[in-house]
Specification:
The chain is an alpha/beta fold. The protein has 2 domains: 7-121 and 244-313, Bordetella uptake gene, domain 1 (D-Maltodextrin-Binding Protein, domain 2), CATH 3.40.190; 123-236, 3-Layer(aba) Sandwich (D-Maltodextrin-Binding Protein, domain 2), CATH 3.40.190.10. The chain has helices spanning 7-17, 40-56, 71-78, 93-100, 136-142, 158-170, 182-190, 201-209, 257-271, 274-282, 292-313; strands at 29-33, 60-64, 86-91, 112-121, 123-127, 148-152, 174-178, 196-200, 214-218, 245-252, 286-287. α4 packs across α11 (292-313). The longest helix is centred in the C-terminal third of the chain and has 22 residues, at 292-313.
């Protein structure tokens, strides 16, 4: 698969903002990763930093700031100057946390500037050693005989919200079981102490490919072109669960629009590189390629979706 951003598209983006913030960056750029080293977000950030160093001619320093469902690192980013020298790379977890964390130290609308949607991929429902079903339709039948235990990486994680969404949309007879991270959730699922786990392709496919767990459904109306052998939730008659996972870059609130557009164009150039295209292929993902304004709409939409679900399901209450 080659989810290419064409050279023409990159050139068009660059032409529109070439005049903007021509002296950026004037020094090292900090890229905050609000997760530990070695995770899927960190593994995306590191080759991206190499590409950006070549484009900017300045060091791009990765700072891992894990904790509080990615909110420790996100909070640190919001407190920086909006000059582009401190950026955040985060997952869709940045849109779920506001729905359950009433004590956030920042305003998720005013204190965050969405800059670039780097990567999108569907969520995948996976089954562990206790699951007899081979697809979502079979899991629904199995849940009529016993309660399905859906593992998550912790309360408020994107997998938690997606699990709640599947239960709400499908009527699956299931209980949510929280663990202290994705690794612990996988271990318990493979050991028969939990049944399912939902995450994006980058997270789940290494375990699926080596046979330790099985992919039951791509949460989408139709099959995902990069995983043609995995049935979709739509095939099981389940609708309303087709929310994409993503990885994106953000800046502090109040960032100059021209600067945000300039960084967006540079990120598009970086994502078009051979190094990042290989990263996309390995993660079964595609490039986002949206303007800051377009991505902001998705960011705000997703936050509202998760807030509505939290209210409906009593999440965090």
């Amino acid at each position: 698969m080659k989810a290419l951003i064409t050279a023409a598209a990159v050139a068009a983006l660059g032409a529109g903002v070439a005049h903007a913030q021509a002296d950026f960056p004037t020094g090292p750029v900090t890229l905050i990763v609000p997760y530990g080293t070695g995770g899927s977000t960190d593994m995306t950030a590191r080759p991206l930093a190499i590409e950006l160093e070549e484009i900017w001619g300045q060091p791009v320093v990765i700072q891992n700031r894990p904790g509080a469902g990615s909110m420790i690192g996100t909070t640190e980013m919001t407190q920086a100057a909006p000059d582009g020298h401190t950026l955040l790379i985060n997952t869709a977890a940045i849109t779920t946390a506001p729905a359950i964390q009433a004590d956030l130290q920042f305003d998720p609308v005013d204190d965050v500037t969405p800059i670039s949607l780097l990567i999108t991929s569907p969520y995948v429902l996976t089954g562990g050693s206790n699951v007899n079903a081979d697809d979502l339709a079979g899991l629904l039948e199995e849940s009529q005989e016993r309660t399905i235990f859906m593992s998550t990486a912790g309360p408020g994680s994107s997998g938690h919200f997606m699990s709640e969404l599947v239960i709400s949309a499908s009527g699956l007879n299931a209980d949510i079981v929280h663990f202290g991270g994705g690794g612990e959730a996988y271990t318990n699922m493979m050991g028969g102490h939990a049944d399912t786990y939902i995450s994006t392709t980058a997270s789940v496919m290494p375990y699926v490919n080596d046979g330790r767990i099985k992919a039951l459904a791509v949460l989408a109306p139709e099959r995902f072109e990069l995983l043609p052998d995995v049935p979709s939730s739509g095939e099981a008659g389940v609708t309303g669960v087709d929310i994409e996972g993503w990885v994106a870059v953000f800046g502090p609130g109040g960032m100059d629009e021209e600067l945000a557009n300039r960084i967006n164009a540079d990120l598009a150039q970086a994502m078009a590189s051979e190094r990042m295209q290989e990263q996309l292929e390995q993660n079964y993902a595609v490039a986002g390629n949206l303007t800051p304004a377009e991505f902001r709409e998705i960011y705000l939409r997703d936050m509202q979706i998760w807030q509505n679900l939290a209210d409906e399901r009593g999440i965090g209450q």
